[in-house]
Amino acid sequence: MTGDRSVQEDQANASERRARGEFVRGVSGFRNAVGEGDFPAQPGRYHLFVAFNCPWCHRATLARAVLGLQGGISMDVVFPNRTSGDDPAGPNLWEFAPNRIATSTGTTLPECTRDTGTGRDLRLVKQIYQAEGSEEQSVPILYDKTNGRIVNNESAEILRMLDRHAGPLGSVLAGPDRPCLYPDDPDLRAEIDALNELIYVTINNGAYKAGFSSDQAVYAAAYEAYFDTLAVLDARLSDGRPFLTGDRFTEADLRLFPTLYRHDPVYYLRMKLNGAKILDFPHLWRWLCRVHGLPGVAGSSSLDHCRQGYFGRSWNNVVPRGPFKPMPYPQAYAHPGLAR
Q1: Is position 54 annotated as part of the catalytic site?
Q2: Which residue of the set 208, 223, 261, 267 is catalytic?
């Protein structure tokens, strides 16, 4: 998978591109697979470390939810803002902090946990990596509790291995009740692969290039590609199909959802993607509401975390309160008729 443009960004001349102001996503360093070598597929053995504001983590939490793996794979959730400059360990580190107050709500965030996966009650995600001699510090992490090792920290690979081994990993769903995200059909796989690449380059990673690049031309190109793809996907859904490839929910739908879930309430402002809202694409809006209504999906992330995580790191750390028209989010996702 290492050369797959739907998994990671081309790293050619990455340092020079960053110096010119382009956002260039790095490469995940842990690429082991469940079901191979030291990592057998067993229920209760694996653990996810995630941030609910992070769209890459959202892929993993979505897979865990729709595949019925909440009981088979345990999970910890970090606070959506990272450490500040006065933290003894340094700034910009993911932190397990269930008692930390969110400025957006004035309260703790109930989804946040301590570290229960390593058995050492660590405070920082960075410490999980340091135990293996790594300087990485990203989430998500799929962790093996039995041998105390990181399995994988690439979201695209994590969601696929959860799908492949859902039964042995302890899914409570069986037969038609459990979706197969990457079905064993060559033509359908080719269709999913093509959608995955388009969605990753222009939507998932494209949102970050628009929002975090400091070069106007890079931003403009990302902005145009993002909205061009939204139009293509809206047209694709205009024939009445419920999901991107037809009647079944697949990996392509799962990988699109985290970005579009964040677009209207967060990315429209924070990522400077203010050309239109998903509400302005009626077929995509109804698709978004349909996916949000699938069992487990609504609890797989939190817009409170997203607002706090994105705006709480902006220049003045103030978190916007809206939008409230046509109604607040995520409540709006229960109303597909809002888009006409």
Answers
A1: yes
A2: 208
Q: Cβ(54)–Cβ(139) under 8 Å? A: yes
Q: At what angle do helices 251-262 and 155-164 cross, to 10 degrees?
A: 140
What is the Cβ-side half-sphere exposure of residue 4, based on CA atoms within 13 angstroms? 15
Average pLDDT, the chain: 93
User: CA-CA distance, 204 to 255, in Å (whole number)?
Assistant: 8
Q: What residue spans define the domains of the chain? A: 186-338
- % the chain with pLDDT above 90: 88
- Is the distance from CB of 73 to CB of 46 less than 8 angstroms? yes
Write down the residue that tokens 């995940």 correspond to.
28
CATH architecture under which domain 186-338 falls? Up-down Bundle (1.20)
- Active-site position among 54, 57, 112, 289: 54
Say what the pLDDT of residue 314 is: 73
Residues listed for the chain:
340
Q: What is the pTM of this model?
A: 0.93
